Each structure stands twice: as structure tokens, then as C-alpha cells.
Amino acid sequence: MQERRSKFKSLHDAVAAISDGAKVAVGGSLIRKCPMALVREIVRQRKRDLTLYAWSAGMDFDMLIGAGCVREAWSSYVGLFTAGMAKNFRRAVERKKIRFVDLSETCAMDKFRAGTFGLPYAISRVPLHSGILKNPEFKEVTCPFTGEKLVAMEAFAPDVSIIHAHRADTYGNVQFDAIRMMDNESDIFIARCGSHTIVSVEEIVPEEEIIRTPTQTMLPKVYVDSVCHVFHGAHPNSCDTRYDFDLAHAEYYQECASTEEGFARYLDEFVYGTKDEEEYIAKLGGQAEISRRLDHPRRKTA
Amino acid sequence: MKTYTLEELLSVEVSRRVVDDEMNFTGIGTGGKAYIRACGIPLVGVRLAQTKHAPNALCMMGPVLDPVLDHETIPDSNWEYDLIHWPCRSQIPLEDCLGLFRLGLVGMAFASAAQVDKYGNLNITCIGEYENPKVRLPGVLAQTDLAALAKRVCIIVNHDKRILVERCDFVSGASGHEDRSGLPGGGAAYVMTNLCIMDFNPETKMMRVHSIHPGVTPEHIRQNTGFDLEIPPNVPFTPVPSDEDLRLIREEIDPKRNFLNAGITQDRATLED
């Protein structure tokens, strides 16, 4: 019998599959559970002309835009929530360095879902009379049943989807903690609609553990192409009940991002200046120090 | 001497407009004054209504559905860990939360904005032209959704010429009344500020003053509004909160001022400075 295929890859090798000009869908929401280790690796590999899709984006988009990786981006939000505005994003849109397409939370979800259902477009009333219609991709159509005016929105069809999750086996069976922020449900749609899907996880577990808890496998291996093991892989984002948002680091990030030069220095220090995530974590004082500062002592595991 | 705060006055005004059995929507909120307007006042208003005329009204705060709003259970922070563990009756998937909007199951939705125009449209996206913005703001979030689909939108903003404008630079939420064809929701119903409570004139489709807060003059309201606002003659004062309402808010609902002064966000604030 042949060996079964392992989908376990280094971050470097997984991200190498993303080409310049690719359409990349990014999981997480606001400052929660964005796949930041994968994002940093995209910056290290200096990918260019990407189009980004998210349900609700944060530091992930801001960093990729600030690093010059992005040509166009779509989301219902780009901001750092309690840590303030996304300064690189704001600067890039105001200086017309990127094109940004606004779409509401239901519209973003509808477009990801249409992609996972294999449909060409989603249909909605929501954008009617709103500024979203300034974007030519939103097209008014007439309902063939009722004659009412509706808006057709092309399905998201990302070349690559990247998300961060809690645990997986090396075959690509990905699990989410049962106690989690429900915003994570959008990650499952985002992962499923990608032609190629890369998932970073907090833990790799043996297949027996997956078999013991199959109802937590919200993303079975048929949807997944690469699994990377990155403990604290969402940092500085939070990761549900596992660890908190790193506000102190985010405040430093924001201070740097106030100018283009300042942000270039941040990237030199934390991204280009670290050859991989091990060096990034070491720069922050090591895994134990991050755990001491951000992990929840009261955490209940799934 | 004023015996109540602006936050308390507005919470009571919100509570009177909560309808029994309906679901009310707030976001999760960021910090400081923005939290007080978007979440603090709405949550206290809904809780007050629950204790009085609307025992079956409920709240959706993002993915946290029907949270327990007793002061013992309200967490000290709105960080992710505490939000996840906030006692509530349901945490349905995000997809289903948004689905509740699509099905028309959201009654009153709360919103704040950088601009609100005379018809009741909302803007949180950009100042200046969309293609050439002077200031780019974070996006549209769920504002387009609630403007299109909620039965009523309650807008809470600071009363300022730059906020209450003739026309929004960009319509993030089409809650305005000039043309609602094709939109199932009812649009903007109330606009509450530090100076007055406003509603919409069904004839003109435009904002008008419903009541003026005690101590405020019509002239002061006009000076701080960016369009020609209808102030009907003999418009009443906004009623002062009753002693019983103040007792409920201060002793039963929000004794730590986690909601009304954003204590939950570690960026305590007041709308009155």
C-alpha cells in the first residue's frame, strides 16, 4: 500500500506556492485570528500585485499593503479596532497606491458563500441606494420571478485562501476549538472557496485525536492543500480563548506605521529582519514569554 | 441642578422605543465615546425596557445573542476572551447572525457615524470623494446591512455641523428616506444627540426635531446643524429621567458604569466633556 499524502509543510514552502498577481483570501476578523505568520512570510518573500479578499480585515491587510504587496483589496473593514485606524491602508487609499472595494458584512459573506457553492454570483438587496454601487462589479439585475431590482455580486474565486486555526493532523484535517468567537465561521467559507488553501495551526495532533473528535473537524482535508505548524501564529492578533491580542506590540506597530519610513523600519525589524517565525518569536522574547504575557490562565480547552 | 447625565437621559429615550419581542442589534464596539454611543446607551436602554414594558425584547451584540445583562454577569472587559464567555442564550454562527438581518428579524439597529445626512443616510467610509478621498475611514462594516434590512435604525451621534450634513460624501448605509425602493427595512427612525431627539417628517422625508433636551435652545441646535433643520413650533422638552429609572440604571443595571461610561473598554469616557 502506498503512503498517504502528508500536507505538512514549512511556512516558506507553503507560501512559495503563491504567485505574484494572485487573488488571496485572508481569514480572521478585525484583530482576531488573522493568519499573521503566513502574512509575514508573504512579506518576507516579497510577493507583489496581490488582490486581497476578507470578510473583515485588520493588521493582516494593513501590513501587506504597507509592505507594497497589494494592488487591490476587498473587505467590509480595515482597521485595528481598539488600537485605532489602519494607517498603511489609509495612506495607500488616500494616495491612490491601491484600489479598495467596500462591501458590507452580508455582501462579503454572500460572495464567499457563492464561491463555496460553486455558483457564479450571489444576489442581494443590501447594496441598493448605497455607495457600494459605485464599484462597477456590483450589477443591478431584475429578479426573473418577481421583477424586483436586485444586485448581482460575482462569487469570490481566490487562487489561494489563507487562514489560521487551532489544530490539525498532518493530512490536513483542520479543527476549531468548540469555544471560539463565532466570527471564525467566516474562515470556514474563506478556506473552502480557495483553489489552493493554506492553513496554519496552533497545534499538530495525531490522527487518532482527530478520529476521537470528528465533530470539531469543520474543515476536512479535501479542502486543504498545506498545513503549517505555527504556535502563536496569529500574533499580534488574538486567538479565541488561547491568547489575547498583544496591545503593547500593536501600539508599537501603530507608532511605526505613522509614517512610511517608520513602517519600513518596523518591517526591517520584525519581518525582513527575521528569517522565519522562529526568529520572529525569539525577537519577542520566546514562546514562554509570549505565553506568560498573553495566554489565558483560565482557559477552558475544547 | 441637573440630577442625571446625558448618557442616562438617552438610555431612557432608547428604552421607550424598544418594542416587546423584538431583537435589537448593536455591534461589539471599540472604546471610549464611540463605545458609549454604539453599545453602552443601547444596551442600558434595552435592559431598562426589559425590566419594564418589553420583557421579551432581546439583544444581539455581534455573534453574542441574547446576553444576560444583569450587572453581576457583565464582564469587566470587552476583550475577546470575556466576550466569548459572556453569559448568553446563544452563540450562533456569524452566517446565521447575518441571516437574521436577511429574514427581517432585526427590529431596532443602533448606529453611529462620521456623517448623517438630512434624509438619514449614514457615512463611515470616507470624507471627500470616494475615488479621491480627503480622509479614508475603515469601511462600511454591517452598516449597509442594517440600513437596508432592520425595521428601524436608531442613530446616536454628537450634534455637530460636520456630522449632521446636507448630503453624505459616501452612503455606507442607505437608511435615508428619499428613496427606499427595493429595501425591506424601515430606515432611520430616530437620531439622538447631546442636544435633542429627532425623527423624520413623513411628508418631507427629512429630519425634524422631536424634543429638545432641557436647557438647550432651538437656536443652539440650528447653529450646530449642517442643514436647514425643521424645528416645529412648541416642540417639547425631552422628559427628565424618573427617579425610578435612575435608580434602576445606577443600582441594578450599570452600577460600575461599564456601559454608560465605557468602563468595559478600559478607556472610560463621558459624552459631556
What does this entry look like structurally?
Chain A is of the alpha/beta class and 302 residues long. Helix content of chain A is 31%, strand content 19%. Chain A has helices at residues 11-16, 36-44, 59-66, 87-94, 105-116, 185-193, 207-212, 247-256, 260-270, 277-283, 287-294, and strands at residues 23-26, 50-53, 70-75, 99-102, 121-124, 138-142, 149-154, 160-168, 174-175, 196-204, 226-229. In chain A, β2, α3 (59-66) and β3 (70-75) form a beta-alpha-beta unit. In chain A, α3 (59-66) crosses α4. Chain A is globular, with a radius of gyration of 19 Å. Chain A starts with 10 loop residues before the first helix and ends in an 8-residue tail after the last helix. The mean pLDDT of chain A is 96. With 273 residues, chain B is α/β, with parallel strands linked by helices. Chain B is built from seven helices and 14 strands. In chain B, β12 (188-192) and β13 form a beta hairpin. In chain B, α1 (6-16) packs across α2 (32-51). The relative contact order of chain B is 0.19. The chains are: A alpha/beta (302), B alpha/beta (273).
In short:
The complex is a heterodimer of chains A (302) and B (273). With 302 residues, chain A is α/β, with parallel strands linked by helices.
Layout of secondary structure:
The complex is a heterodimer of chains A (302) and B (273).
Chain A: H1 11-16, E1 23-26, H2 36-44, E2 50-53, H3 59-66, E3 70-75, H4 87-94, E4 99-102, H5 105-116, E5 121-124, E6 138-142, E7 149-154, E8 160-168, E9 174-175, H6 185-193, E10 196-204, H7 207-212, E11 226-229, H8 247-256, H9 260-270, H10 277-283, H11 287-294
Parallel strand pairs in A: 1-2, 1-8, 2-3, 3-4, 8-10, 10-11
Antiparallel strand pairs in A: 5-7, 6-7, 8-9
Chain B: H1 6-16, E1 23-26, H2 32-51, E2 58-61, E3 64-67, H3 80-84, E4 88-90, H4 94-102, E5 106-111, E6 115-117, E7 122-123, E8 126-128, E9 133-136, H5 143-149, E10 152-156, E11 164-165, E12 188-192, E13 196-200, E14 207-212, H6 218-223, H7 243-253
Parallel strand pairs in B: 1-2, 1-5, 5-10, 6-11, 10-12
Antiparallel strand pairs in B: 2-3, 3-4, 6-7, 8-9, 12-13, 13-14
